Amino acid sequence: MRVLITGGGGFLGQKLARALGTTGQLRGQPITQLTLADLAAPAPLTLPFPATNTACNITDPADVQTLMAQPFDVIFHLAAIVSGQAEADFDLGLNVNLFGTLNLLQAARTHANAPVVVYASSIAAHGGEEPAHIVDGVELNPQTSYGTQKVMGELLLNDMTRRGMVDGRGLRLPTVTIRPGRANAAASSFMSSIFRDTLQGETSNCPVAPDYPIYHTAPRTVVANLIHAANLNCADFGTNRCINLPGRSDTVAQMIAAMTDVTGPDAENRITWHPDAAVQTIVKGWRGHCTPTKALALGFAQDASFADTVRWFLADDIAKAP
Amino acid sequence: MRVLITGGGGFLGQKLARALGTTGQLRGQPITQLTLADLAAPAPLTLPFPATNTACNITDPADVQTLMAQPFDVIFHLAAIVSGQAEADFDLGLNVNLFGTLNLLQAARTHANAPVVVYASSIAAHGGEEPAHIVDGVELNPQTSYGTQKVMGELLLNDMTRRGMVDGRGLRLPTVTIRPGRANAAASSFMSSIFRDTLQGETSNCPVAPDYPIYHTAPRTVVANLIHAANLNCADFGTNRCINLPGRSDTVAQMIAAMTDVTGPDAENRITWHPDAAVQTIVKGWRGHCTPTKALALGFAQDASFADTVRWFLADDIAKAP
Fold first, then answer.
1. Cβ of A238 under 8 Å from any chain B Cβ?
2. Is A215 designated active site?
3. How far apart are CA A79 and CA A10, in angstroms?
4. Staple B149 to which of A66, A248, B97, B134, CB 3.0 to 4.6 Å?
5. What is the mean pLDDT of chain A?
6. Which of A128, A139, A142 sits opposite B139 (nearest CB)?
């Protein structure tokens, strides 16, 4: 079982690699090779199977062909330009999010056996003329270039799966919080930093009102769901391989209250409340509520509480920090 | 008012050009230039304003930039690889239907004023896990590469419109019948040829059963709707610029009966009935019923009867044939 993770240097790619290291297998077969690819080669991890850390520019078809010269059985495609950056630079987002995905799928289709491709799409697929509460089967009307490019990738994945070129499974990730590391250019960055940074003694600004609802999921849950997507039988997905992932809907105020329940009031007192119109324009186009019927029927995991998320963050990302 | 038609050598592009020649104006302004572009330069038409017929390979960005070196006010983007051919050659379909559209929109965004872009999408956008009877707002799950590529173009058009790069209006065309000319590689080709060819004394095969329902529209109606789309105010469209166009639902048997009512039984008797599994696989993935609420509210025209379509075909395409 040869496995590739694109965006392997990102926090999700790193957590996914560690989780695969724990199970040692995928789709019932032992993992014999894990390749982590990113624009800069990711730092090596200690893993119980051979692992390679490779620099690859997915906007360059030749680079991708080199990366995939030896076929993979399972590909987790996480590499992306995030929402804020794709909004600031239309062509960069298009090159990485659409053409990078196309380059990857074009290389994957040359494999003798169609590889399983787990594709990270996003709740940013939703917006615009869609209902306030998302259900499966509504027409996608993304209101960011990031969301648009992700949905274009979904369509390509569906079509290339229908044609037998790949065996795709597309997951629309809720906002993943609490992200470790530093703030990034995602418009959703604050949805982690108001918890992550304040729990570590820093101040952090919340650019939206306390009653803003977030459809969110924890890193642990997302990693489990990425692996679950790879393990499922392709026939279970039906003709639409791209689904809304389970998450929880909480307002910012409810999430802060959960943090305070777990850790006391110090972190909450470090949050400032200065509205940011640019961030609001993007995130108010997203949806805070979703009923992911198909994903739940397929056995994907759903977060039980944001208090768990806070505990997992403290255990996974603070306790283990160097 | 400078106007461009891509796919200008096709039957719709030609009919649209003649219709613009009749009105002489668009968006309340006189047309001062009409450019018809196609892979081979279209034959000149007699028009009451300056017209240019240009060869342009829309898969070549430089060719498209040359075509659009002088800005256009309204662009009708009709050029495409049809369904059967895009199914037979994945890369060709992707190159023309997706990258051709991207090249056009990238050139259009360099215009000082965002041009109106009327984009021909298709009812082939629908299929798969969608309901049997299409309504507005259902998640698009195309079951052909043609439909997939058309929807990817819709998303791009929506996003570039949201960003102010173009002023897009995407129309999902029902099956256009009766098409003049010869059979083509569209899986829907028979939906014209069983009328067009038999009305001209030839035999023609129907590869589906008489009870197969078709959501169809006449060339006259489509041309009127393309022009209507260009004339509408952008604000009327909302955040989703891509809509299901009105059509009529009739079974093949009902359409044949309408033809017989208008012309007598000779044509009907020239139809043969040999099932074709390849065609059926494609067209049975389409939808035969659609309620296009938004388009009707926006004032788009709807066909009243297939008998009208037969009369219009005889008047427009047989009477005027050389």
1. yes
2. no
3. 8
4. B97
5. 96
6. A139
Which range (A306-310, B179-183, B199-203) has the least confidence?
Answer: B179-183
Q: Which residue of A has its CA nearest to B165?
A: A90
Would an 8 Å CB–CB cutoff place B155 in contact with chain A?
yes
Q: Min CA distance, B152 vs chain A (Å)?
A: 5
For A215, A288, B81, B269, B273, the CA distances from B196, given in Å and listed in that order, are 54, 52, 22, 13, 16
Strand pairing class (B51-55; B74-77): unpaired
Nearest-angstrom CA–CA distance, A196 and A313 = 8
Q: Which listed residue (A119, A146, A212, A215) is catalytic?
A: A146
Over the range B225-263, which residues count as b (16 or more CB within 10 Å of their CB) and which as e?
bbbbbbbbeeeebeebbbbbbbbbbbbbebbbebbbebb
How far apart CA B262 and CA B307 sit, in angstroms, is 6
| pLDDT per residue as tens digits for the range B266-305 | 999 999 999 999 889 888 888 999 999 999 999 999 999 9
User: Do B140 and A139 make contact, defined as CB atoms within 8 angstroms?
Assistant: yes
- Tokens linked to A15: 């957590």
Pick the closest to residue A7 from A49, A57, A70, A47 (CA basis): A57
Beta bridge partners of A54: A37
More confident residue, B34 or B185: B34
- Please report the DSSP string for A247-264 in residue order: -EEEEHHHHHHHHHHHH-
In single-letter form, the type of residue at position B33 comes to Q
Residue of B274, B267, B272, B259 whose CA lies nearest to B311: B259
Domains (range + CATH), chain B:
2-176+216-246+293-297 (3.40.50.720), 190-212+249-288+304-318 (3.90.25.10)
Amino acid residing at B295: A
pLDDT in tens, B1-43: 999 999 999 999 999 999 999 999 999 999 999 999 999 999 9
